[in-house]
Amino acid sequence: MNTALELSPPVSRKKSKHKCASCRSPNVKATAVGERIIRGLRTGTKQTLFQVKMHRLRCYDCKAYRKEKIDFISGSHKTVSRSLERTVIELRRHMTISAAADYFGLHWSTVKNIEKSKLEKKYKSIPLKHVKSIGIDEVYLGKKRGEKGYITVVRDLQSGAVLHVGKGKKGECLDAFAERMKRSKSTIEYVAVDLSPTFTAWIQNNFPEATIVYDHFHVIKLMNDKLNAIRRRIMRELDDEDKTQLKGKRWHFLMNEQNLKIDARDQLKNCCELYKELGIAHALKEGLRRIYRIRDLDLAQNSLVYWCELAENSQIKELVTMANTIRRHGEGIFAFWKTGITSASMEGFNNKIGWLTRQAYGYRDEEYLILKIYDLPNQKMIKVL
């Protein structure tokens, strides 16, 4: 043991203590193959290094010819001690990779690989036997990742655990998860998902007995998209001078009306009076939100049927499309009232994934990113300076 500036002669295992790395037989021949510097925990402000003479062992019993096993490192290729690895993993909860690397005098990739190796062991096998309800949602990570930058996350709605991360946003990216579920012999009862037809078809093919639940969040989000499309269409038809009345008003229409400030409400009311289609669409959006406050299933069904009639009678193409979508997915939409299943936690988890990627300014190692997503339910969202 020595400091980073001065190294003593290398330490070595006694010849009588050598054992085969495969069968642990002492009947071996040891051949020196060089020396290795192994970094240990700091001693005060000083870095601690171990200079170790390495041997290759030929076993006369099992005929193996391998490098000797060093007890205080986790692998024959490692250059840091087990104790240092444990400390790095513990400090990673409170420090960035760069900060931990600077403190221990390690390369950035060494710290990352220590954590990656730990996560690989932790999530090598994810139990699925008792999973009954799952949530499926896609997350956008950027143009350089997956199919147009999307991944699809599957979570257990009861425990919150991440069960699968697929690359892309089509049902095919979840085929490996379906195979694992079949092997586990678990029965999926409920699946909370958005109104994407590709996920609906995948669920019906792989879990035909499961009840599909279209969460209210996704229905309201789709309605907001239609409202925004109407606003943008109207703006394209206006002169540059008239466009100023709608510019910068996007969130006035999309936010819940009670959350707007008084001046924003006045501006919204003025826009709805000036542009009839926007006024109708906004009123229907607020009406749809109020329907989801109803707890009685029959009353909610009748209210949605009436809402669809109003949307069709408006003869606004975006609202007619929305009404047709609600009718087409009616069974899954009404399942929200029947089951009480919601994927609201999935949307909050998507925000945590965004926080995760912002903390690292993006991830170059895709496997490491996916492992971090698996571990994300165990992490608290804190700002690392």
Give a nutshell description of this structure.
By secondary structure, the chain is of the alpha/beta class.
Overall number of structural domains: 3
Helical proportion, percent range: 40-55%
The structural class is alpha/beta
Q: Which series of helices and strands comes N to C?
A: EEEHHHEEEHEHEHHHHHHHHHH
Beginning-to-end CA distance, first to last residue: 34 Å
Residue stretches low in confidence (pLDDT < 50, at least 5 long) are 1-5
In DSSP terms, counting alpha (H) and pi (I) runs of 4 or more, how many helices? 15
What is the strand content?
A: 15-25%
Indicate the mean pLDDT.
Answer: 86
Report the biggest beta sheet as strand number plus sense, adding barrel if it closes: 5 strands, mixed
Strand order of the largest sheet: 6-5-4-7-8
- Indicate the overall shape: elongated
**Number of E strands:** 8
- Rg over CA atoms, rounded to whole Å, is 29 Å
Tell me what the structure shows:
The structure is a single chain. The chain is α/β, with parallel strands linked by helices. It folds into three domains: 15-122, no CATH class; 133-215 and 342-378, Ribonuclease H-like superfamily/Ribonuclease H (Nucleotidyltransferase, domain 5); 216-339. It has 15 helices and eight strands. It has helices at 82-91, 97-104, 108-122, 175-184, 197-206, 216-237, 240-243, 250-254, 262-274, 276-291, 297-313, 317-328, 330-339, 344-359, 366-375, and strands at 28-43, 46-59, 65-67, 133-140, 150-156, 162-167, 190-193, 211-214. The strands form two sheets. A five-stranded mixed β-sheet has the order 6-5-4-7-8, sandwiched between helices. The longest helix is centred in the middle third of the chain and has 22 residues, at 216-237. The radius of gyration is 29 Å and the shape is elongated. The two termini are 34 Å apart.
